[in-house]
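User: Sarcosine oxidase subunit beta, Aquamicrobium zhengzhouense:
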Amino acid sequence: MRKYSAFAIAREAFRGHKGWEQQWRSPEPKAEYDVVIIGAGGHGLATAYYLAAEHGITNVAVVEKGWLGGGNTGRNTTIIRSNYLYDESAGIYDHAVKLWENLSQELNYNVMFSPRGVMMLAHNIHDVQVFQRHIHANRLNGVDNEWLTPEQAKEYCPPLNISKDARYPVLGAALQRRGGTARHDAVAWGYARAASARGVDIIQNCEVTGVRRAAAGHVEGVETTRGFMRAKKIGVVAAGHSSVIMQMADVRMPLESYPLQALVSEPIKPVVPCVVMSNTVHAYISQSDKGELVIGAGTDQYTSYSQTGGLHILQHTLDAICEMFPIFTRMKMLRSWGGVVDVTPDRSPILSKTPVQGLYVNCGWGTGGFKATPGSGHVFAHTIARDEPHKINAGFTLERFRTGRLIDEAAAAAVAH
Ligand SMILES: Cc1cc2nc3c(=O)[nH]c(=O)nc-3n(C[C@H](O)[C@H](O)[C@H](O)COP(=O)(O)OP(=O)(O)OC[C@H]3O[C@@H](n4cnc5c(N)ncnc54)[C@H](O)[C@@H]3O)c2cc1C
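Assistant: Predicted structure for Sarcosine oxidase subunit beta:
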């Protein structure tokens, strides 16, 4: 793999940019792999990369029914933070933030990680108490999070409305300065390029239609629209379709799949310097490097595999944005879209072995898995390679829904982005 550098750009400028290689190979599927990963989103590609880079397992295929990064990885609003309440959650999300901080260097690919700060607004006494509890818990876990007065919040984000006459006045905010955003497509592309260079086969336009199991129960391989691929181990990393694939292996998952929408405005000059989230008015906002306001909220109320979603959700979201930022009232919205997110009863993910030998699952990230991409891939690769969890994902088992040992972020945070 040719290294990307300022020198390489200068060299190619002198020879008409004819020397750039394809970023990843597009090989024909082989008959047999050590590991097949189902789903070429950020989590699946990161898993394949760390299997090759850290565990020396390179006979790996990542099988994708569409194009790589075309699922939720390419549809999300890119918020990154790690100020979750429970020890397990803070552990895995902060592991990810630490990897984000050096990811562009590690992959030799600019993922545009931008730690511009994530500010979560408190609008009532309950919010104030919950966020201050989070701040104390986070500090005990070595995760940065600090309390701001309304005036300090406005200083950090000048267009914010802190008028006491607002329907939901800002009473303060929790700020994680190490949080921020990254370029979602670049994350998928960077992992794909680095994994492919280490020998991983990325097979796009190849839908998994079945999981074949031996009479003894263990996995034998995957049926796909491009033929059968034998595999010693299978990792399911298919976001909103995880339960569909696990059903193919006769494993019933505690998941519901919902549409989640986002939208962007026309581009304007830089005006929102950080990420602002509000659980109470139920909307969040940041500004992309192109200048578009990137806006989202919670899931639609009904389960569905539709990637569109209902208009009233967007209308409610924009009402909330105008409440927080009256200066955006006259802005035009450019595009909206949806993705399908899989949600667990406790709103925490599952990264785990399964009752089927050789079958592993990484799912249930709901509305907030983009931020975890590097950490999730890192510990899931460990789980697959060693057939046992990394200590960071040890609590994120499938069995917790049987034993009751939940990681109940659902109760701790109404919005999980
Ligand atoms: C609108 C929206 C906003 C969001 N905002 C944020 C945010 O701000 N911050 C945050 O942290 N998270 C956010 N998320 C959540 C985040 O996008 C996801 O948790 C994360 O991207 C999941 O990554 P993944 O790699 O697991 O899934 P995906 O990127 O969805 O990858 C799964 C892949 O599996 C493939 N697949 C499915 N079935 C099959 C099959 N049968 N055969 C082969 N391939 C298959 C799909 O095509 C897909 O490409 C948001 C999500 C949405 C939809």
